[in-house]
Write a structure and sequence with these properties.
Length: about 100
């Protein structure tokens, strides 16, 4: 699996918009596995997201797609600026 961790700074009311917003079933990225969002205890306007994909190829195909660009531009409306991205191979996971 492959994915990205992103650090986001949300505008006032932006977290609620992000929580309400979800791409339609047929608009979801091919190869996407899951997305998690963490709101920081010490700074509620700081959010970290983790997006998981089946493979690096699926991740790159999504990142390069016009559909993802449209989703990204919509998300930017609720942020203070561009996210800080950290991409990489998932080398360990544990499900309970």
């Amino acid at each position: 699996m492959y994915g990205t961790v992103a650090k986001l700074r949300v505008k006032p009311g932006g977290l609620e918009k992000l929580q309400e917003w979800s791409p339609e079933e047929d608009d979801r990225a091919s190869g996407a596995v899951a997305v998690y969002a963490f709101q920081m205890d010490d700074d509620p306007d700081e959010v970290y997201t983790v997006a998981l994909f089946e493979s690096k190829e699926a991740y790159v195909a999504n990142a390069d797609s016009p559909e993802q660009d449209k989703r990204y531009r919509q998300m930017l409306k609720w942020l203070e600026g561009e996210p800080e991205w950290h991409d990489g191979e998932i080398v360990y996971h544990q499900e309970y």
